[in-house]
Amino acid sequence: MRSNISRWLLTIAGSTLLTVSVAGAQPAVRDHRKGPKGPPPSAVMPPAPPVAAAGPREAPPPPRQEKIGRRNGFVWVSGNWDWKNGAWAWEPGHWEKVRKGKKWRARRWEQKGDVWVRIDGDWDDDRPNAAPPALQEEKWQPRRGWVFVRGNWDWQNGAWAWTPGHWERERANKRWREPKWELQGSVWVMVNGDWIDAPKFPDAAPPAPRDEKFGVRAGFVWVKGRWDWKNGNWDWVAGHWERARANYTWTEGSWQNKNGQWVWVDGAWTAAAPLPQFPTAAPPAPQAEQIAPKAGHVWVKGRWDWKAGKWAWTPGHWERVRANYTWQDGSWQNQGGKWVWVEGQWVAAAPPAPAPTPPPPPAPPVVQAPPTPPPGPTSAPPAPQAENVQPRAGFVWVRGHWGWSGNSKYEWIAGHWERQRANVQWYDGKWEQRTQGNVTYWVWIEGGWR
C-alpha cells in the first residue's frame, strides 16, 4: 500500500518538474502575427463562494417596555431587537399612518434550526367579518347653514374605532347621504357618505308644526313658524311678529299638494271687511264681579264694550267718592235699531229738605222761618292746585278740582286716571255761578264721557 502511494507522488512530482523545465527552455521569440499586444491572458479563476452571514444562535432579549399614547389615524409599530455586528441592538418603535383595509403585522424572530431568523413586519389585507357596533349617541343642536355629519365606526388595524361626528357647511341644492356598512359576501364594506343632488320638492307632507309660546303684543300680529324645504330636508323657520296693518288681516301660508308634489303657498295681508261701528244686538249678560267695600270710594261696575266689531269685557274699577254727588251707572240703549252706550256720570245730590217750621207758640208773636240756604257755596272756588302728571298709554287724566264738603268749606279733590274708552272723549267738570232769588251761589258741573 505504501509503495503505491509513493509511486503516485513521484509521478506527480516528475510531471510538474518536466512542465517547468520545458517552459523555461523555450526562447523569447517575437510574434509578428497581428493581434493585441501585451502579455498573454492569465487563467480566469471562478469566484469564491460567498461566506454565509453568521446569524444569531441565541434568542433575542425580552422586548423593552414603551410608553405610547393614542394618535388617531396612526398605528404604533412596536420596537424590536435587531442583530448588528454580532450583537443584539434595540430599535425603538414609531408611528405608521393607517392604511385603509390593511392591518399591520408586527416584526418577529423565528428559530430555524440553530439560527434565529428575522421576519419583517408588513401591511396585510384586512376586512371586518362582523357587523359594526351600534352607533354612539351624539348630542348636537341645529346650526343654520351647516349639516351635522354623524359619527360612525371605522375598521382600523383589525379593530373597530369610533370616528366622532363633525359639521359640514351646507351646499346649495345638495343633501348629505350618511355612510353605511354593507355586507358583501362574507365581508363588511364601508360605503362612504357623499353629497348628492337634493329633490327640489318634497314628496311627503311636512312634519307637525312645533309648539311656539308667544304672548300678546299691542299693534302686532304673530306669524306662525313653519317647515321649509331646504337642500332636500325639512328645516324649521321660527315664527315672528309683523306690525299690524290698518283694515287688513293676516292669512297664514300653508303647504298644499299640487299634482303629487308639495308646494308652499305664502301667507299674505288681505283687505278686511269693514267692521260694524255699532252693535245690532243687545250685549251679553254682565260678568259677575266680587268686590269688598272700600272706604271713600265707589265701585264703577264692569261692562261690555264694542271693539273691532265684537263684544269685549271691560272690568270695573274704583272711583273716589265726591262730596254731594252720587254715581249713576252707564247703560246700553237701543236707539233707532242700534245699540249705543250711555256713559255713567256723577250727579249732584239733591239738597237736604229744610227742617219743618215748628208751630208758633200761642203767646209770642209768630216768628218767620229762616230763609232756605242756597244749594251751593256763595263764594267762588280757589284757583286749581298744580298737578304734575306724565302721559299714560290707554288712560285719560281727570284733573283735580275743589269740592264743597259737608262742613261748608272747599276741599281739594285730587285728579285721577280714567281708562280710555272707544269712540268717546272725556270732558272736564267745572264750577258755574247761578242765582236763586236774590242769592248767588256756585254749582259744580261734573265732567263725563261723550
Structure at a glance:
The chain is mainly β. The chain contains one helix and 40 strands. A two-stranded antiparallel sheet has the order 1-4. A two-stranded antiparallel ribbon has the order 2-3. A two-stranded antiparallel sheet has the order 5-8.
Structural overview:
The chain is 5% helix and 40% strand. The chain is mainly β. The strands form 20 sheets. A two-stranded antiparallel ribbon has the order 1-4. The protein is built from 1 helix and 40 strands. Mean pLDDT is 82; it is low at 1-35 and 48-52.
Distance between the termini: 166 Å
Q: What structural class results from the helix and strand content? A: mainly beta
Helix content: under 10%
What is the averaged pLDDT score? 82
Topology:
Blueprint: H1 2-25, E1 74-77, E2 80-84, E3 87-91, E4 94-97, E5 102-105, E6 108-112, E7 115-119, E8 122-125, E9 146-149, E10 152-156, E11 159-163, E12 166-169, E13 174-177, E14 180-184, E15 187-191, E16 194-197, E17 220-223, E18 226-230, E19 233-237, E20 240-243, E21 248-251, E22 254-258, E23 261-265, E24 268-271, E25 297-300, E26 303-307, E27 310-314, E28 317-320, E29 325-328, E30 331-335, E31 338-342, E32 345-348, E33 395-398, E34 401-404, E35 410-413, E36 416-419, E37 426-427, E38 430-436, E39 439-445, E40 448-449
Antiparallel strand pairs: 1-4, 2-3, 5-8, 6-7, 9-12, 10-11, 13-16, 14-15, 17-20, 18-19, 21-24, 22-23, 25-28, 26-27, 29-32, 30-31, 33-36, 34-35, 37-40, 38-39
